[in-house]
Design brief:
The protein has 336 residues and is of the alpha/beta class. It has two domains: 172 residues, Alpha-Beta Complex (Quinone Oxidoreductase, Chain A, domain 1), CATH 3.90.180.10; 136 residues, NAD(P)-binding Rossmann-like Domain (Rossmann fold, 3-Layer(aba) Sandwich). Helix content is 30%, strand content 22%. It contains twelve helices and 15 strands. The strands form three sheets. Strands 1, 2, 3, 6, 7, 14 and 15 form a seven-stranded mixed sheet that branches. Strands 10-9-8-11-12-13 form a six-stranded parallel sheet, sandwiched between helices. Strands 4-5 form a two-stranded antiparallel sheet. Helix 9 links the parallel strand 11 and strand 12. Helix 5 crosses helix 11 and helix 6 packs parallel to helix 7. The mean pLDDT is 97. The chain binds zinc ion (2 copies).
Length: 336
């Protein structure tokens, strides 16, 4: 990305092993993230041309001499942060706050090849090379499914919960799927877009709320016993969506936030008197990957349904435009 609205596909040097803990993978598929739209829209400043992309599945082509758990030829899924998966913070399940964390795709994952640092701790091999029909689902696990899943776990979704999801992007939609898998009884998806409402229902939403702001909060409270939802998952990152999520959570309920916040501040008095538990951050996708891969491999979940447009990598600029203009929920980039 050369600047806001300016995405170009260019020839760059092939990545090589730099440290003995690295792997080099050949990507099988990549995609564009909702968070890539922040710099695309100029809301997040970049200092210069930046390689883009952090969601990936691929085949291991080279490994450093210290890599133990992976072999050349493995099909792998990884998260957007590289982690050692051994430090005290990783052991607590927060690999995205690893003491040695670094970007997993320093050269960008919207590419044919990438170098992955801390390969043993970062990448998870699938049971074999997947059927092509599974690739979009595994790719979704790399970020949006893992992030939606963390949203549900961080909001303490469990059997019988009433859950509301703020945000109908890929993460919000997959938070609906996660809530269903975790046993929620009532799942309220907030969306004003017909296609997204339909996908939310397919993923397990029981109700749709199209209103926003105070009207949206009132609608959720009406559906959830007058008090608000037990668990609310915020998957946007704006001041409006955070306020909506917080006010839609019942007293002493749980609210998670997994949209990267931009211009958000919370009112401490709101938090103080509501007793709402608030937890969020960059999802430790690595924690969930083995379980998510199992669920995908067995055909239990199809998170790749969020990809409603597939384009060759060479047409990435069109993919950004489609997501920016909301013609597409999420764009898969096909590799040659
Ligand atoms: Zn992402
Ligand atoms: Zn760690």
């Amino acid at each position: 990305m050369h600047g806001p609205g300016d995405v170009r596909v260019e020839e760059r040097a092939e990545p090589v092993i730099q440290l003995e803990t690295d792997a080099v993978i050949r990507l099988v598929a990549s995609c564009i993230c909702g968070s890539d739209l922040w710099p695309y829209r100029g809301i997040e400043k970049q200092s210069g041309p930046t390689p883009m992309g952090h969601e990936y599945v691929g085949i291991v082509e080279q490994i450093g001499s210290a890599v133990r758990t992976l072999s050349v030829g493995d099909f792998v899924v990884g998260s957007f942060f590289a982690s050692d998966n051994t430090c005290v913070v990783c052991q607590a399940g927060y690999q995205t706050a690893c003491l040695h964390r670094e970007p997993a795709a320093p050269g960008g994952a919207q590419a044919e090849w990438m170098r992955v640092p801390l390969a043993d701790g970062t990448l998870v091999a699938t049971p074999g090379v997947p059927d092509p029909s599974l690739v979009p689902h595994l790719l979704a696990a790399s970020d949006v499914l893992g992030t939606g899943w963390f949203g549900a776990v961080a909001a303490e979704v469990g059997p019988g919960s009433t859950v509301a999801v703020v945000g109908d992007g890929a993460v919000g939609l997959l938070a609906v799927l996660a809530a269903r898998e975790l046993g929620a009884e009532r799942i309220i998806a907030m969306s004003r877009h017909r296609e997204r409402q339909e996908l939310a229902l397919e993923f397990g939403a029981t109700d749709i709320v199209a209103e926003r702001g105070p009207d949206g909060v009132a609608a959720i409270k009406r559906m959830a016993g007058g008090l608000g939802a037990d668990s609310v998952i915020e998957a946007v990152g704006t001041a409006e969506s955070m306020a909506q999520a917080l006010h839609a959570t019942r007293p002493a309920g749980h609210m998670s936030f997994v949209g990267v916040p931009h211009g958000v501040s919370l009112d401490a008095m709101d938090l103080f008197f509501s007793h709402v538990h608030v937890h969020g951050g960059p999802a430790p996708v690595r924690r969930f990957l083995p379980d998510l891969i199992d669920r995908i491999w067995s055909g239990r979940i199809q998170p790749g349904r969020v990809f409603d447009l597939a384009l060759p990598l060479a047409e990435a600029a069109d993919g950004y435009r489609a997501m920016d203009e909301r013609h597409a929920i999420k764009v898969l980039l096909e590799l040659p």
